[in-house]
Amino acid sequence: MFSLHQFKHLTSAGFARRLSTSTRSPRILVTGSLGQLGSTMVNTLRSKYGQENVIASDIKKPTLAQRSTGPFVYADVLNYRSLDQIVVDYGIDWVVHFSAILSAAGERNPALGLNVNINGFQNILEVAKAHKLRLLSPSTMGAFGPSTPKDDTPDLTIMRPNTIYGISKVHMELLGEYYCEKYGVDFRSLRYPGIISADSPPGGGTTDYAVDIFHAALEHNRYTCFLKAETRLPMAFIDDCITGTVQLLEAPAESLTQRTYNVHACAFSPEELAQEIRRQHSKDFVIDYAPDFRQDIADTWPRTMADVAARKDWGWNPLFGTSEIVRSMLDKLAPVYKNAAIASQSQPTSAELPPAAVTAN
């Protein structure tokens, strides 16, 4: 039997542990952390919650620089036991689930797209259920389809996508909402537009042209686009996407009126983007058009999306329009190509090299 003094001591200790747990920074697992969004998201969360509280994970090998910024673990989302162990070992509270096969890549390999996007998400959802985790798993404008209204597409509307990526994301949205209602999983999602970033290479999406075009403009002053000139799509700069994702991740549950939200920053076509590049970079920039299978995907997507609920419920407020995106991309990438050109010019020609160096290959 406990004495009254011992009972009070144990009760106080238990209360202190609960208080400590409730006031400490959340421990966050980011899957797909080496992708376009993942790497930036990890850095943003670490600056806010501390390096050791954000666990980066992927199936690829990180660079030395990526490993040096905080914990990294190998995590295959198709392996439930591995995910479960990571959550237990690191005391995870929140999960940001970026692991996915994107639109164009999913059409090239449908079986892989279905496996990763559906079975991988199922594993993440089950782990969230078992350990009462907050789960944010982004969706996409690709969840809409050819019969969806194209302009000011609302949050709730016809959703009949005809791509593996879109189908898997509709499945994700509905299953996440089901687990929220049935099991109390704190599931959250936002439908990204095309995302533009200078920090990492494109990841196999249909809007990749809006990143490739800047590299081509700076290196060759010419670009061949795989979409038609007039194909207008919703877009956002990565800074706005990361800010919005963190806002939704942190939002109090009681402020959310739905589980999945549209987010929209601006919209442009390849020709409109090219015109802005000419205005800010080079009036001689040339864009050619050679549409491929990605045109069929883009034709099923919205031209603009309505995001009133995101703005009202958790403060979505993008700062970058088309002009600001172009300026930022050029400012970030121009020094890279300038330095590469200088390095190339400083390399000795074969005539200048000693004989051993010339024949080394």
UniProtKB/TrEMBL annotation:
Pfam families: Epimerase. InterPro entries: Epimerase_deHydtase, NAD(P)-bd_dom_sf, NAD(P)_epim/dehydratase. GO terms for molecular function: L-threonine 3-dehydrogenase activity. It catalyses: L-threonine + NAD(+) = (2S)-2-amino-3-oxobutanoate + NADH + H(+). GO terms for biological process: L-threonine catabolic process. SUPFAM superfamilies: NAD(P)-binding Rossmann-fold domains. Pathway: Amino-acid degradation; L-threonine degradation via oxydo-reductase pathway; glycine from L-threonine: step 1/2. Residues 28-263 form the NAD-dependent epimerase/dehydratase domain. Its EC number is 1.1.1.103. Catalyzes the NAD(+)-dependent oxidation of L-threonine to 2-amino-3-ketobutyrate, mediating L-threonine catabolism. Belongs to the NAD(P)-dependent epimerase/dehydratase family. This is L-threonine 3-dehydrogenase, mitochondrial. It comes from Coemansia brasiliensis.
